[in-house]
Amino acid sequence: MTDIHPLLPQDAAAVAAMRQAASPHKGEVLGPEARPIFDAMLAATSPAAGIRIEPATVGGIEGFWLRPDTARPAARMLYLHGGGYMLGSARAFASFAGQIATRNGADTFVPDYQLAPEHPFPAAIDDVLAAYRGLVADGAERIVVAGDSAGGGLTLALLSILADERKRGTLQPVAAAVMSPWTDLALTGASFETRAEADPIFTRGTLQAFADAYLQGQAATDPRASPLYARLGGLPPIRIDVGEDEVLLDDSVRYADRARAAGVDVTLAVWNGMPHVFQSSLDRLLAAEQSLNAIGRFLHQRLIAAADSPTRLDA
């Protein structure tokens, strides 16, 4: 199913102002020196009410627990932050991830996976896999996974790795939700041309620099780095939210098409006029709130359904 959401009149002025503010910086190539600025931007997301934030280590990976007051026993969310594999931190994304955690009612672990260029591929996906296995070892019975941008790519790569381990009895996630996922580090999507002017933030060059720093000569089509090229059969239900005004639009559209062809239950929501990971602008955009509410409902419903199911989802 594909949902097309029109640009809301209430959001038009805010989007125009955001575009004007971002335009002088469009196409800038960022390095590790941008980490404090990026973290400050994400940390400005309004925190959700009723969330406790606790430093923790899961599966040997440091990060933070986000614990909603209404959390249900044995239900967990693994949230994977974005930042082009070079930027971002679990603490900076705590408020943003907490907005999803409070909407689905699951204790949420946000891992501080290792960042490039100091720790190139496959360090990030190896850390994410370790964190997931740590959740299982700690007694999680129902797990959902969510992420944005590069974290969305990690989410989808993780799903395929876990699906390949199904026959070994690995507990499978019951659902996943991703926002503007980066699924193709080879940068072959047509939207790099068709949405080049519309995207207020990224250019092909910006993303190429991120990809080069992360891959450091390894294949961009490795499915652990680019889940568009992974085997997609046997994955849990997935929700994908993406802005129409972003060069990564086709990373979502093509992944959704391939996953559906493999028999996966995929909901693709395309938000007209919206930029990359617009959900982080919760205080400015009504579409951000609507998208987060839909993501929260989707994950909540899957966790409830899994709790009511008489069969194990890893069978």
Automatic annotation (TrEMBL):
Pfam families: Abhydrolase_3. The keyword Oxidoreductase does not apply. SUPFAM superfamilies: alpha/beta-Hydrolases. The keyword Lyase does not apply. One of its GO terms (molecular function) is triacylglycerol lipase activity. InterPro entries: AB_hydrolase_3 (IPR013094), AB_hydrolase_fold (IPR029058), GDXG_lipolytic_enzyme (IPR050300), Lipase_GDXG_put_SER_AS (IPR033140). Keywords: Hydrolase. Belongs to the 'GDXG' lipolytic enzyme family. This is Putative hydrolase. It comes from Acidiphilium multivorum (strain DSM 11245 / JCM 8867 / NBRC 100883 / AIU 301).
